[in-house]
Design a protein that fits this description.
Elements: E1 5-7, H1 17-31, H2 37-40, H3 48-56, H4 63-83, H5 92-101, E2 106-109, H6 114-124, E3 132-134, H7 147-156, E4 164-167, H8 170-179, E5 182-186, H9 193-199, E6 203-205, H10 210-215, H11 218-223
Parallel strand pairs: 1-2, 1-4, 2-3, 4-5, 5-6
Helix pairs in contact: 1-4, 8-9
């Protein structure tokens, strides 16, 4: 078994939080009731169906939920093609390349379905430096439950106690804690520094490059949870 580093996708590797919030807001507003982009942001990082039902006030089986979902996915596909590499957050490409060179396995664990997650990684040009991608569609329970993180660890042959999860939302931190991973918050997406600390993050960073600093920090291994 080995150490691995798992990452959230939206807001952690990809600068997509504002775009997602705007598109979900527009989709719900078009088919159900007015919802602001700001109201969507706290839901970034949880399964889409939870976001849509909570914000629309509709049950999951309502046909309008399917219409909202189709509306959002269609807009998202266009946005990914339009923005592509510009969605990649600063320092991410170098970080993933350095982790690959160091022989440290990496994975993406996301509230997205796996297919759209891979499409986004490909559009940003980093799919070939991520070892495993696990979306909500591959598990019984999405974030903040531990299922998807544990599946990623299993596929990487890694142990939770020796591995980290880096994410930008409270749901990321909750999942990391539930799965036994070290929770590392990053302030490039949905949550503020203090929100990540309150959620239980051991460390909060502001830039992807800081992950490499943590790797060489003797204090990290001394304080890592077991």
């Amino acid at each position: 078994m080995t150490k691995a580093i798992l990452f959230d996708l939206d807001g952690t590797l990809a600068d997509t939080v504002p775009l997602i919030a705007e598109q979900i807001s527009a989709a719900i507003t078009a088919h159900a009731r007015p919802v602001s982009a700001a109201a969507v942001v706290p839901y970034i990082g949880v399964p889409l169906i939870v976001t849509l039902t909570d914000l629309s006030g509709l049950p999951a089986e309502d046909e309008r939920i399917a219409a909202i979902t189709d509306h959002y996915f269609s807009a998202w596909d266009v946005a990914v093609v339009e923005h592509g590499p510009a969605l990649l957050l600063p320092g991410v490409a170098d970080l993933l390349a350095d982790l690959r060179s160091a022989g440290i396995p990496t994975g993406v664990v996301t509230a997205k379905d796996t297919g759209p997650a891979i499409e986004l990684l490909e559009a940003m040009g980093i799919a070939d430096v991520v070892d495993v991608v696990v979306g909500t569609d591959l598990v019984a329970n999405g974030k903040p439950e531990p299922d998807s993180a544990l599946l990623a660890l299993e596929r990487l042959g890694a142990t939770a106690a020796d591995s980290w999860y880096v994410g930008d939302a409270a749901s990321d931190i909750a999942m990391a804690i539930a799965s036994g991973l070290r929770p590392v918050g990053i302030t490039t997406g949905a949550a503020l520094h203090e929100e990540l600390v309150a959620a239980g993050a051991d460390i909060v960073i502001a830039h992807a490059s800081e992950v490499l600093t943590l790797l060489t920090d003797d204090q990290l291994s001394a304080t890592a949870p077991r």
